[in-house]
Design brief:
293 residues; mainly alpha; Endonuclease Iii, domain 2; Endonuclease III, domain 1; 3-stranded antiparallel β-sheet; 15 helices; 53% helix; globular; DNA-binding; metal ion binding
Length: 293
DNA sequence: GAGTCGTGGAA
DNA sequence: TTTCCAAGACT
């Protein structure tokens, strides 16, 4: 059963956004669709503050998809720096190639064409259609899901994956006018990022606190299935990160002993190197040397 | 559908 | 210091 959302949420949040929105490069009227697409890739699981400098350097070096497509994927991985999840760099490069090959170098404006690009899932396709092309799309990221979950359904945190009920609520709230819908989508996200945060939400600064079901219910604590805790120290992810950092920071190829030096567990290190090779993040350069692709 | 995939700042 | 997690995508 879906709780009917209150349309009275829309106007106050639009008003709040008009006053409190951050001035981010990819939000400026002069920002290209490519700038928006790059930002969405980088922002997947990565905070805005860390994305800003890398996004600026990326757009300065590769102002168009064609510019990036002309480079090796290894240069994309190198420029990605320490943003994390470097497969995103590989996918962004592949997306640039696809845009150049299949779309005449123009970032496509249709959800379906965007969704078909490497590394572009439902969220990113909807976000680019809305934010770069001002279309009316349901944009469901973790911020929007948290805001709507609280305001409409009185739950502190959303479920692990998007439910049909969430889509129904989001669609019902989405304004009919496409440009207004696009602004609404970014406004809800911004509210989630700045006010309706995961921990210590600033309800006193919320424009819809008096219409929030969660607040009205006394801000009940999360009561769902336990959310998996992500460990890092000693994991393959940390090992892969160490190995890739060596290659990122080297101008060319690197002899294997340089990789061996950064991780003690032989079996784990070999497994991680193999997985990096399988992912295409690392290539064998011959004579026992390795390099970025 | 649950697991996996990086990183570093904040509490 | 340790813990938590930030505009997801893919398998």
């Amino acid at each position: 059963m879906t709780t009917l959302p209150s349309p009275d949420l829309v106007a106050p949040i639009l008003g709040w956004y008009d006053e409190h929105a951050r001035d981010l490069p990819w939000r400026r009227p002069s920002a290209s669709a490519w700038s928006v697409l790059v930002s969405e890739f980088m922002l997947q699981q990565t905070p805005v503050s860390r994305v800003l400098p890398v996004h600026e350097a990326w757009l300065a070096r590769w102002p168009t998809p064609a510019a990036l497509a002309a480079e090796s994927s290894g240069e994309a991985v190198r420029a990605w720096g320490r943003l994390g999840y470097p497969r995103r760099a590989l996918r962004l490069h592949a997306a640039a190639v696809a845009i150049e090959t299949d779309h005449g170098g123009v970032v496509p404006d249709s959800y379906d064409a965007l969704r078909a690009l490497p590394g572009v899932g439902d969220y990113t396709a909807a976000a680019v259609a809305a934010f770069a092309y001002r279309q009316r799309r349901v944009v469901l990221d973790t911020n929007v899901r948290r805001v709507l979950g609280r305001a409409v359904s009185a739950v502190e945190f959303p479920a692990r994956s998007v439910t049909k009920a969430e889509r129904t609520v989001a669609e019902a709230l989405l304004p009919d006018d496409p440009p207004t819908a696009a602004t609404w989508s970014v406004a809800v996200m911004e509210l989630g990022a700045l006010v309706c945060t995961a921990d210590r939400p600033r309800c006193d600064a919320c424009p819809v606190v008096h219409r929030c079901a969660w607040h009205a219910a006394g801000r009940p604590a999360y009561d769902g299935p336990p959310r998996p805790v992500q460990t890092y120290a000693g994991t393959d992810r940390q090992c892969r990160g160490r190995l890739l950092a060596v290659l990122r920071d080297a101008p060319g190829s690197v002899p294997k002993p340089r990789l061996d030096a950064v991780w003690d567990d032989d079996a784990q290190r070999e497994r991680c190197l193999a997985s990096l090779l399988a992912d295409g993040l690392v290539v064998a350069a011959g004579a026992g040397r390795y390099a970025l692709p």
